[in-house]
Amino acid sequence: MIGLGRRNGGSKSVYREMIKNVLEPSSSTHAALLRAYCRPRYGEDALHVYREMKEKGVELNVVLYNSMLAMCADIGYVNESVEIYNDMKKSETSKPDSWTLSSLIAMYLCSGKVVEAEKVLEEVLESGFEPNIYVLTSLIQCYGKANRTDDVVKTFNRLQELRITADDRFCGCLLNVMTQISKEDLGKLIICIGKANTKLENVVTLLVKEETVAEIFKDKANELFGAISKDVRKAHCNCLIDLCVNLNLLERACDLLDLGLTLGIYTAIQSKSPTQRFLQLKSLSLGAALTALHVWMSDLSKSLGSGEELPPLLGINTGHGKHWTKIWLVFLNPT
C-alpha cells in the first residue's frame, strides 16, 4: 500500500521495490502515488508518475487531473500545465471543470500571461460552461497584476450578470488589486466594492479622504472586521495597510495596525525582556511590515528619550519571501 502525506520517501521506495521485483503497479497504485506526490508538491516525481501512467494507458479521473494542474500552478510549471490540460481535453471520461480552469488561470497569473488566461476563459464560454467565482477571482488577480483596471471592472460586472454573490475572498481580491493600481483608478474599484460589501466600501472611502477623523475611521474598520470571516481578516488588514502606505497615509496605517493588534488579527509582533527586544515581521505584507517597523522604532526612540536603558540585543525576524528574506540583529552596548 502506498502511503500518503508525509511518507513520500517511503512511497517512492515501495514503488521502486515493486518495479525491481517485476511487479506491475496497478492503476490504483499509480493513482495513490500520484496523490502522494501532488500533496507536498513533489513536482518532478509527480510528473514522472503521470507520464508513466499515460504510457501505460492508465486513465486519470478529474480529481487527479486537477491535482496535477493545481500542483503545476503552485510551482509555475507552465508548459507542463498546458500538456496536462490538452490531455484532459482529449480524455473521454475526464473533461475540464471549474477547478481545472481556475488552476490554469492561476498558473497564468503567476507567470504574468494575461492573454493566455483570456484564451482559457474564451474556451470556457465557447463550451457553454459558465465561469464560477473561483475562475473570476483568478482572472481579476491576473488583470490587477497587469494593471488593467478596466478589465477588472468588466470581470466584476460579469460576476453580477451571472448572479454570483461576491464573497469575502473575492472582495479581498478587489482590495488587493487596489494596492497595485494608480490613485486615479481607485474610484473605479471603490464603486465595485460598494456593490459587493458596503462596510468595506465605507472603510476604503474614508481611507482615501485625508481629512477623515481617526476615530470614525477606526470605528468603521472595526465594524468591517467584525462582519467578515476570521480567515480573511488578516489579508484584508494587510491590504488596507498597504493601501495606506501607497497613499502616504502613515497615521492611518498605524491606526489599522493598532486595531489589528487589539482584535487579535496580529499577534506577537513585539516581545520584550531584560536582555532583548524582538520584532516579528513574518506573515505581514510589505506595507504592514514597514508600519510595524515604524512603530517599533518610534517606541525605541521614546524609550531612549525617557532615559530607559535598552537591552543589549535588538532583533528583527523578517521571515521568508519576496521582500523579507533574512534574520538580522543589531547589538547595543557590546561591553
What does this structure look like?
This protein is mainly alpha-helical and 335 residues long. Among the domains are: 165-267, no CATH class; 270-331. The chain has 16 helices and four strands. A four-stranded mixed sheet has the order 1-2-3-4, covered by helices on one side. Helix 10 packs parallel to helix 14. The radius of gyration is 25 Å and the shape is globular.
Write the layout of secondary structure elements.
Layout: H1 8-20, H2 27-38, H3 43-55, H4 62-75, H5 78-90, H6 98-111, H7 114-126, H8 133-145, H9 149-161, H10 168-178, H11 186-196, H12 198-208, H13 214-227, H14 230-246, H15 250-262, E1 270-272, E2 276-280, H16 286-305, E3 313-317, E4 327-331
Parallel strand pairs: 2-3
Antiparallel strand pairs: 1-2, 3-4
Helix pairs in contact: 2-3, 2-4, 3-4, 4-5, 4-6, 5-6, 6-7, 6-8, 7-8, 8-9, 8-10, 10-11, 10-14, 11-12, 12-13, 13-15, 14-15, 14-16, 15-16
Family: Belongs to the PPR family. P subfamily.
PPR repeats: 26-60, 61-95, 97-131, 132-166
GO molecular function: mRNA binding; rRNA primary transcript binding
